[in-house]
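Work Package 4 report. The design task specified in the project plan requires that, given a folded chain encoded as structure tokens, an amino acid be chosen for each position. We show below one input record used in the internal validation round.
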């Protein structure tokens, strides 16, 4: 019954905002579109742009659908630009749940009431989102902390809404052949994994610990410490961080923060996470970024909310670094070659044609400040080019694209005249110098030294064993050879018997023929 009521609400909201018209606009079937439109003859004509209508509908359907829209906004390889731009404006603003529920959650997860665990606990939440809300407290040793508490009943709500989404995508795939290119089932599966990962707050705490360790010696970024004795899958306790939200430009300027330096520092932090660590904060919207004004850490970024992180392997990092450097050097031929060499573009792709298409996308953005560049438009044109050349959009790069768009927005706020290319190019060239050439070789030898120290003393024994195995075949090999010899002997006996039998039959036939011919003269 509850599922039916939820479906009824979704249908009502979809009808209210004319989502049927948006869906039917993708069908090459005008008669069907007119028939569907006629079913809603009583509805007034809707003139609001489709992107706004979709955003409003998702906001009315609640937090899970809001998050789904946020995920869709990052898939500019699948979504039209007007819809992707509008969905990116979705805000995860949800009323807080009652404090007694938060206290009950903390008590159940940590085994004691907050009054017993902490010197003080503020029952009024300071922030609330669809998955969790945050309360401030003080440990008994005097340290100020922030407590993130999972919203009760979220798993059941997510499972029910995700099941409805899978049902809808199954129906869409059956009635709309073009939907296969948009991969609706894969998009929902990606969203399903993303949401269930966020339900485990221990995963978020581990992500924060890794990022903090990566930037332990950094003068650019601060990450709160996790207090593991107070962490569980539904409650985590972390160091309380104080700072000014990065979006409050006037306050930052009034405090004397160098906005141009802050802007370039943000670019360096991004490229450090991507190319040095292959582990990056993938939800860097302004609400998750503060700037410290404490004298000891003045002007440093503070990262919050680590539910979404991206990872890249060595192959991804090498591919990206080659492409970024080739872009910066305007070597579009190398960009095309890298796509083909990596297997992301078909082997039969003509390098010159792909080179020309990439040049048309990227050449207009050079020698221009960030305020005159739209990465959204560049990415859109690159994705259109990708589809034309059947280039596969790698799933691990979707979060990177989302983060790059966040960096663009942040840069526009802090320093509209920032030249992203000139800021990033020296860092990338330095990083490439550390990965290739003598410096890269030395660093890799250092990294492998512990393994070599373990292997070298064993080399004489391993070499002796290998020589013995070469001189004396392995027992299993000997058994196999013996079986082959026996089988060969059996085969030879069978062949001999068949030959003897065939010879006997042939002799009998010849004898009978001779007897028939000459026997009558005897």
């Amino acid at each position: 019954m509850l599922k039916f009521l939820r479906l009824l609400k979704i249908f009502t909201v979809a009808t209210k905002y004319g989502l049927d018209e948006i869906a039917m606009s993708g069908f090459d079937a005008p008669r069907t579109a007119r028939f569907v439109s006629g079913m809603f003859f009583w509805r007034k004509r809707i003139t609001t742009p489709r992107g706004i209508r979709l955003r409003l509908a998702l906001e009315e359907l609640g937090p899970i659908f809001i998050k789904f829209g946020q995920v869709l906004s990052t898939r500019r390889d699948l979504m039209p630009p007007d819809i992707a731009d509008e969905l990116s404006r979705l805000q995860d603003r949800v009323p807080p749940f009652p404090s007694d529920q938060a206290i009950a959650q903390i008590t159940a997860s940590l085994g004691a009431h907050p009054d017993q665990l902490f010197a003080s606990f503020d029952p009024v939440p300071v922030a609330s989102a669809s998955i969790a809300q945050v309360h401030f407290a003080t440990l008994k040793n005097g340290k100020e902390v922030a407590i993130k508490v999972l919203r009760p009943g979220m798993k059941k709500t997510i499972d029910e809404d995700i099941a409805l989404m899978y049902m809808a995508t199954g129906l869409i795939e059956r009635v709309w052949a073009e939907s296969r290119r948009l991969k609706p089932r894969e998009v929902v599966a990606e969203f399903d994994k993303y949401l269930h990962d966020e339900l485990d707050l221990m995963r978020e705490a581990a992500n924060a610990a890794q990022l903090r360790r990566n930037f332990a010696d950094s003068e650019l970024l601060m990450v709160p410490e996790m207090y593991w004795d107070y962490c569980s899958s539904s409650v985590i306790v972390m160091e309380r961080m104080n700072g000014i939200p990065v979006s409050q430009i006037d306050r930052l300027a009034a405090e004397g923060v160098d906005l141009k330096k802050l802007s370039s520092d943000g670019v360096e932090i991004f490229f450090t996470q991507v190319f040095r660590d292959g582990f990056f904060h993938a939800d860097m919207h302004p609400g998750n970024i503060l700037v410290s004004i404490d004298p000891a850490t003045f002007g440093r970024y503070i990262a919050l909310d680590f539910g979404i992180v991206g990872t890249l392997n060595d192959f991804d990092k090498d591919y990206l670094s080659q492409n970024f450097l080739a872009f910066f050097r305007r070597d579009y031929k190398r960009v095309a070659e890298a796509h083909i060499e990596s297997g992301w573009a078909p082997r039969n792709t003509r390098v010159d044609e792909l080179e020309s298409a990439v040049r048309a996308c990227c050449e207009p953005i050079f020698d221009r400040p960030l305020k005159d560049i739209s990465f959204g438009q560049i990415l859109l044109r690159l994705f259109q080019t990708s589809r034309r050349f059947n280039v596969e959009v790698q799933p691990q790069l979707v979060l990177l694209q989302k983060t790059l768009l966040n960096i663009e927005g942040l840069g526009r706020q802090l320093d509209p005249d920032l030249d992203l290319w000139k800021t990033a190019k020296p860092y990338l060239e330095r990083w490439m110098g550390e990965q290739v050439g003598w410096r890269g070789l030395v660093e890799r030898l250092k990294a492998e030294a512990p393994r070599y120290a373990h292997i070298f003393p064993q080399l004489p024994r391993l070499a002796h064993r290998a020589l013995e195995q070469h001189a004396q075949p392995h027992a299993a090999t000997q058994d196999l050879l013996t079986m082959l010899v026996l089988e060969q002997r059996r085969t030879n006996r069978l062949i001999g018997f068949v030959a003897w039998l065939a010879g006997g039959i042939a002799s009998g036939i010849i004898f009978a023929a001779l007897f028939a011919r000459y026997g009558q003269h005897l």
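The longest helix spans residues 475-518. Validation will be extended to a larger panel in the next phase.
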